[in-house]
């Protein structure tokens, strides 16, 4: 699918070709300056050394930046990069299975933040723009910077923050270096112990002209999580019961889920550097990550129907807090199996050319690809029986569940069986060209200018079992043999959360379940006509095998062309040094959204009730929509050192975040109805990007080594906020003109976000021994928003961090506390219009190490040592959505360094 060439492409490509291939410059200039001050800074290890390097980046930055740094080569402060980033003020994380996965910055969720690896965008299989940190091993990372303000040079696409993760380079390590570590981690939920190994070797040759570095990391984790779940609560529901039971909140369902999971991650990097002279440096690098996740869910499920409810109790908010269901209701046992393999590869070549004493030219060419394939490796199977039961939410916590029957293996029937999944492929090609020209002209000290080009293509292909097969078992009409089922004991299921859940139910295996249904003993129980049709379908479509659902597939291609210019001004106001960086970035965006669908050919009707029904084309047809837009993004970053080591910074910028790629699908699904009530739903390839006007003010005092205090205020006025909405479109059909209300993502409201960040970091080196080994870092973030229509922003919430550490000679110990206040996760869940809020969550992690000698260290780690659970609710505080426990993890290991 060929896209139209953007208007800037010839100009930018000519500039790139004329100046050649040169180095990656998006890795922050502040980091480079801090590292170039002295070679010795890289050798300072441990907690203090990490804090010193991170503080130096913050202090010497052009804008408002926070950073984290590895404590030593191969030794990151936390087991996961996201979990280290949450120690920074303004950064909070979303966890999956107790492991950090996505980040939010200043209240803006993962889709609003750009994450780069060595200055490059990494492909992802998230289906959008958010970066999944669990695909990268922390042992391979040297540091990360969080840019909270914009410059012309900084890549566009983020109204939250730009995060740049850096990996090690051999010429930075200066000579031979080898490190290796091994640890065993015990998960107290799964009661399994799993290994993690990592290693790095680096050396320089020919008097430091050549450098070669290779690193590898492997981890294997078996985990278990227990979850109580209600998918949603329906307001305005009427129950046919004696008394006042109209207009109540009614729960959709109640499930008890035990999930066992295996996560296997293999990651590696390879870097080759060549510096023939002091003026030229070439770097070629590659990164590979393979992340295999397989899980099993065994679920005790109850799907509530108002017509089967024979008794209920309400609270003061007219919420059903207890319901009794009749024998026409069902108790279901679900088994879900999944195997997903994600591969991420990245390659880059860059160089750095110091043309003369005043001019430096750098550029980067990179390629990244991520692919995930679970198209025929995910199952959803349901067995059950008709039952009486009662569910009681009134005590809070985990609901009480009472049955008439639960463990009889001889009364079970089939209800659902399918394979399904998604094949996702994300591919990115990027080129950057940057130049720095140092001027000897007084106030104007230097200028930066350059160009960049990006071509990104996301393809998604959903898969599913043929409809008549997966739907052919409904109603429990096929009896299942008792031999398929096994007694399951979930003793202690969420026991610390109160309530009285069921601790015993029946489990089975999806593959054995579907093998039985595909046998004559299974489908032969259907009526003769249905059995013959099912047999033919099973033969034609290879049983329950998943097939590509082409009609729901789509591809989005996005091309970006950008030019930028930054001017650096500096001087003194009295005896106060100041600097102003004024820049502008111009970027053109061209998107092409392609998909498939059935065309709306005509309308039938009206029928006797006045309803119309759509007439769709028999064959699916390709759909394609192109759009383009451009932005001029100014930025100003100013700082002044009012007294020695005390800085005031101010920044103004305009920034954008483009709509997530999955929202740009062009396909629509059409419904019927009255002439004035025709509805359709789908994506929206015409979405405009979020546009934000930002102002930042920061006060920073660096009063000692590894010690500082800072306070920052920020405000963001965001336009074109995207939410689910409706637009009207008229279709000229043979039967006439028909107007449809199309539900899709739309640009709706504007909103203002503002907040404060407070941070304090201090090492108590002035105390007498042994107390001079103590130190701490603490920060708090307060964030709020307002809009004309009071729309809440997902991810917006306050957070607090406290880290206390002790480091003395060969001993280190650290305790880290993190709290994230309640925040909105999504404005509408899959089961209806109920929002989902994640309640306050706190976690305590600990770590310690002892250096046996200069080469060997033993260490211990504890994650979530207080065994906190994650809770989610609906619109009201007692609308339980989820209570999930992932448990604590403990590690013991050894690290070697040479």
Annotate the secondary structure layout.
Blueprint lengths: L8 H11 L9 H8 L9 H15 L4 E5 L11 H5 L5 E6 L2 E7 L8 E4 L2 E2 L19 E7 L14 E6 L2 H4 L3 E11 L4 E14 L4 E20 L3 E5 L10 E4 L1 E25 L2 E24 L5 E6 L5 E35 L4 E15 L5 E14 L7 E4 L9 E29 L2 E22 L1 H4 L15 E4 L14 E4 L2 H8 L2 H4 L4 H13 L5 E3 L5 E20 L2 E29 L8 E31 L2 E12 L10 E3 L8 E4 L7 E15 L2 E13 L2 E12 L2 E12 L3 E13 L10 E14 L11 E10 L2 E10 L2 E4 L9 E3 L2 E11 L4 E8 L5 E5 L6 E6 L3 E9 L1
Parallel strand pairs: 4-7, 30-34
Antiparallel strand pairs: 1-6, 2-3, 4-5, 6-7, 8-9, 8-45, 9-10, 10-13, 10-44, 11-12, 13-14, 14-16, 15-16, 16-17, 16-18, 17-20, 18-19, 18-20, 20-21, 21-24, 21-25, 22-23, 25-26, 26-27, 27-28, 28-31, 29-30, 31-32, 32-35, 33-34, 35-36, 36-37, 37-38, 38-41, 39-40, 40-43, 41-42, 42-45, 43-44
General description of the model:
The protein has a single domain (9-897), classed as Beta Barrel (Maltoporin, Chain A), CATH 2.40.170. The radius of gyration is 29 Å and the shape is globular. It starts with 8 loop residues before the first helix and ends with a strand. The protein has a 30-stranded antiparallel beta sheet that branches. A five-stranded mixed beta sheet has the order 1-6-7-4-5. Strands 29-30-34-33 form a four-stranded mixed beta sheet, with no helix packed on it. The protein is mostly beta strands. A hairpin with a 6-residue loop joins strand 43 (869-873) and strand 44. It has nine helices and 45 strands. Residues 1-43 have low confidence and may be disordered.
In short:
The chain is mostly beta strands. It is 8% helix and 58% strand.
């Amino acid at each position: 699918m060929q896209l139209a060439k953007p208007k800037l492409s010839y100009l930018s490509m000519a500039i790139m070709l004329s100046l050649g291939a040169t180095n990656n410059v998006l890795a922050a200039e502040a980091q480079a300056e801090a590292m170039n001050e002295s070679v010795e800074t890289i050798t300072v290890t441990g907690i203090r050394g990490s804090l010193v390097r991170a503080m130096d980046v913050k202090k010497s930055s052009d804008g408002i930046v926070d950073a984290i740094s590895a404590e030593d080569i191969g030794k990151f402060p936390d087991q996961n990069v996201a979990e280290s980033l949450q120690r920074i003020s303004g950064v909070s994380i979303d966890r999956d299975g107790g492991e950090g996965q996505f980040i939010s910055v200043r209240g803006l969720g993962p889709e609003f933040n750009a994450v780069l690896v060595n200055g490059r965008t990494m492909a992802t299989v998230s289906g959008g723009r958010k970066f999944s940190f669990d695909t990268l091993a922390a042992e391979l990372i040297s540091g990360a910077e969080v840019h909270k303000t914009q410059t012309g040079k900084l890549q566009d696409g983020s109204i939250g923050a730009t995060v740049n993760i850096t990996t090690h380079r051999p010429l930075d390590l200066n000579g031979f270096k080898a490190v290796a570590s091994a640890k065993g981690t015990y998960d107290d939920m799964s009661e399994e112990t799993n290994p993690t190994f990592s290693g790095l070797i680096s050396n320089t040759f020919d008097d430091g002209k050549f450098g070669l570095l290779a690193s590898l990391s492997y981890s294997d984790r078996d985990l278990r999580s227990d979850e109580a779940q209600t998918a949603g609560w329906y307001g305005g529901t009427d129950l046919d019961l004696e008394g006042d039971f109209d207009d109540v909140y009614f729960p959709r369902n109640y499930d008890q889920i035990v999930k066992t999971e295996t996560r296997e991650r293999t990651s590696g990097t390879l870097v080759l550097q060549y510096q023939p002279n002091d003026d030229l440096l070439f770097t070629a690098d590659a990164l590979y990550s393979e992340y295999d996740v397989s899980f099993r869910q065994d679920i005790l499920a109850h799907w509530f129907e108002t017509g089967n409810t024979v008794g209920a109790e309400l609270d003061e908010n007219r919420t059903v807090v207890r319901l009794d269901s009749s024998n026409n209701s069902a108790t279901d046992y679900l088994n879900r199996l999944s195997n997903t393999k994600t591969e991420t590869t990245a390659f880059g070549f860059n160089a750095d050319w110091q043309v003369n004493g005043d001019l430096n030219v750098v550029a980067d060419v990179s390629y990244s690809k991520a692919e995930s394939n679970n198209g025929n490796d995910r199952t959803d199977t349901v067995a059950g029986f008709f039952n009486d039961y009662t569910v009681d939410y009134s005590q809070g916590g985990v609901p009480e569940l009472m049955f008439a029957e639960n463990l009889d293996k001889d009364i079970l029937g089939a209800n659902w069986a399918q394979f399904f999944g998604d094949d996702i492929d994300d591919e990115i090609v990027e080129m950057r060209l940057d130049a720095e020209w140092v001027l000897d002209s007084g106030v104007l000290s230097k200028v930066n200018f350059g160009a960049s080009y990006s071509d990104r293509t996301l393809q998604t292909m959903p898969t599913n079992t043929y409809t008549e097969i997966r739907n052919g078992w409904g109603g429990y009409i096929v009896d299942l043999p008792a031999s398929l089922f096994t007694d399951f004991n979930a003793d202690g299921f969420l026991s610390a959360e109160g309530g009285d859940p069921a601790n015993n139910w029946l489990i089975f295996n999806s593959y054995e379940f579907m093998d039985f249904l595909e046998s004559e003993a299974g489908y032969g129980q259907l009526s003769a006509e249905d059995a013959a049709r099912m047999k033919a379908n099973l033969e034609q479509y290879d049983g329950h095998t998943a097939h590509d659902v082409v009609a729901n597939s789509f591809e989005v291609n996005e091309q970006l062309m950008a030019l930028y210019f930054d001017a650096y001004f500096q001087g003194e106001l009295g005896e106060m040094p100041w600097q102003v960086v004024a820049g502008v970035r111009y970027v053109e965006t061209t998107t092409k959204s392609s998909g498939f669908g059935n065309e709306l050919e005509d309308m039938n009707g009206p029928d006797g009730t006045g309803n119309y029904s759509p007439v769709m084309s028999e064959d699916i047809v390709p759909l394609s929509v192109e759009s383009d837009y451009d932005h001029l993004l100014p930025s100003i970053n100013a700082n002044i050192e009012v007294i020695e080591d005390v800085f005031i910074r101010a920044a103004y910028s305009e920034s954008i975040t483009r709509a997530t790629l999955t929202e740009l699908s062009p396909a629509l699904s059409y419904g019927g109805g009255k002439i004035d009530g025709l509805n359709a739903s789908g994506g929206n390839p015409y979405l405009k990007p979020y546009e934000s006007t930002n102002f930042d003010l920061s006060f920073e005092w660096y009063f000692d080594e590894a010690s500082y205090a800072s306070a920052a205020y920020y405000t963001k006025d965001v336009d074109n906020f995207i939410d689910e909405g409706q637009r009207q479109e008229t279709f000229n059909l043979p039967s006439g003109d028909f107007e449809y209300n199309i539900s899709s993502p739309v640009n709706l409201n504007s909103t203002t976000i503002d907040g404060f960040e407070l941070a304090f970091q201090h090492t108590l080196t002035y105390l007498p021994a042994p107390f001079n080994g103590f130190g701490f870092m603490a920060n708090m973030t307060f964030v709020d928003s307002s809009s004309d229509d009071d729309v809440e922003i997902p991810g917006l919430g306050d957070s607090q961090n406290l880290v206390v550490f002790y480091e003395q000679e060969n001993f280190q110990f650290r305790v880290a506390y993190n709290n994230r206040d309640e925040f909105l996760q999504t404005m509408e869940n899959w089961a209806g219009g109920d929002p989902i809020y994640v309640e306050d969550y706190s976690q305590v992690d600990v770590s310690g190490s002892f250096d046996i000698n200069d080469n060997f260290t033993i260490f211990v780690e504890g994650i979530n040592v207080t065994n906190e659970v994650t809770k989610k609710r609906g619109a009201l505080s007692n609308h339980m959505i989820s209570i999930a426990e992932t448990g604590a993890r403990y590690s013991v290991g050894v690290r070697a360094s040479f």
